[in-house]
Amino acid sequence: MSSVVPEGWHESEICDFVNVGRGYAFKSSDYRSDGNPIVRVTNISEANGLNLLNDVVYLAKDRAKEFEPYLLRDNDFLLVMVGATVGKYAKVATKGKLLFLNQNMWRLSVIDAQTNWQKFAIYGLQKVVEQFLQTMQGSAREFLTQKEFGKASIFVPPLPEQKKIASTLTSVDEVIETTQKQIDKLQDLKKATMNELLTKGIGHTEFKDSELGKIPKSWEVVELGNSVKKPICYGIVQVGDFDSNGVKVIAIKYLGKINASHLHRSKKTIEEKYKRSRVISGDLLISIKGTIGRIDIVPDDFVGNISRDIARISLSSDHIPDIIQAYLESSVGKTNIAQTTVGTTRAELSIGRLVELKIPKIPLNEQVIIKQIYDSFNIEIATKFKKLSQTQSLKKSLMQDLLTGKVRVQVN
């Protein structure tokens, strides 16, 4: 027994605290287009919940009895135990549906529900998982073994204290969930609004057919390659050039968050080699290999370079970068990008095809108005994200205090 266990608590190995249930290896032939959802790794959201709105497969309703042992319950704790997202977890909320667990995940539930509270286990297990994963850092292993995980330990308070801790953390989770829903709703509204504005414009009554579908009569359709002030090019910097010093380099994983810390390269002596693909504030960036179509704009006061899986687009003065970004991220723009890769043997968007990509040329005064609407959405979403981040930080701090007994809750 650990000397740091709070008074009145006890330390338990995971194997003595929870049952570990495995998912079933459903075959693709089991999948249906409707019925009861089969929960797969891809259905665990970034917010540690279940996303059953996208990429969902189903089990025929008349087979529910056959797979009853794999039926999920509210407050089950799911843990990905193999693959690239090993350690990812989720709390189950069935919302009255029959959900079945697929392979590559464990379902963890308390062994003794008379003395242990499942809702407390959800938070206690999160802390255990995060600590356990730290011991795996630096290894190439992408799996957990039940034997190893079962030997990890958890501090367990008396049942009344478990319930109070769970209640406190649940209230914070509810704020996180509400804020995330608000963000999702705003992003959906932004997407719908921009799709409308980038196809119908503002106040137009006359339209014409074009390669992009119906557009306002005063708009034009142009090639991206004819809308730049310098040639579109991809980066030259390779993984082997990355180091802790030197010129900043934006890699594909930073698109969407360029203001975060960046990779660097140290080869200052061959700076001229990289000059042609240097980027400055206002340049539009798009991923052209692997995950195609991730887009971002180089922020103010940034000067650096890009990795070779990103293309730089320096737009001419009659195009506002935000508008072209919004267009390329719209449903029409994404479709056009996807069509440019048709016939290629691998996931890659060549510069030649990118140059020929069709975009709308919108009168500049109308672009300004559309950008104001676009910016208003981004500001509101950023405000919500700030609140989300603050609440997540509060939860992390509370978990550290409450789950170690550093701060004791008052039980009536």
Could you name the key traits of this structure?
single chain, about 400 residues, alpha+beta, Adenine-n6-DNA-methyltransferase TaqI, Chain A, domain 2, Helix Hairpins, 3 domains, five-stranded mixed beta sheet, four-stranded antiparallel beta sheet, 8 helices
Describe this structure in a few short sentences:
By secondary structure, the chain is α+β, with helices and mostly antiparallel strands.
Task: Describe the protein's architecture and organization.
This protein has about 400 residues and is of the alpha+beta class. The protein has three domains: about 10-155, Adenine-n6-DNA-methyltransferase TaqI, Chain A, domain 2; about 160-200 and about 365-405, Helix Hairpins (Orthogonal Bundle); about 220-360, DNA methylase specificity domains (Adenine-n6-DNA-methyltransferase TaqI, Chain A, domain 2, Alpha-Beta Complex), CATH 3.90.220. The chain has eight helices and 23 strands. It has helices spanning about 15, 120-135, 145-150, 160-200, 320-330, 330-340, 350-355, 365-400; strands spanning about 10-15, 20, 30, 35-40, 55-60, 75-80, 90, 100, 105-110, 155, 205-210, 215, 220-225, 230-235, 240-245, 245-250, 265, 280, 285, 295, 305, 310-315, 360. The chain has a five-stranded mixed beta sheet, with no helix packed on it. Helix 2 crosses helix 4, helix 4 packs antiparallel against helix 8 and helix 5 packs across helix 6 (about 330-340). It is elongated. The two termini are about 30 Å apart.
